[in-house]
Amino acid sequence: MIVKVCVGSSCHLKGSYAVIENFKKLIEKYNVSDKVELQASFCLGRCSTGVTVLADDRFIDGVNENNTEEIFVKEIMSSLK
Q1: Model confidence, pTM
Q2: pLDDT band at 46; cut points 50, 70, 90
């Protein structure tokens, strides 16, 4: 699974780098580095919704530093099973 985190201007200001760092830790914590490829992406075109993540072909909006683990488990881990 390819997981892209937007690092465009709007998402950058909303904390996309913290989201990336948290995702890196969660990929290690859940031991899925062989199944999840984390990438940064320039604007994904959903600037008003908070930090945007694209997991394969699904958009996940409103990601922030405080909800990354909840979203990772709900959206990423559940898709890997």
Answers
A1: 0.91
A2: confident
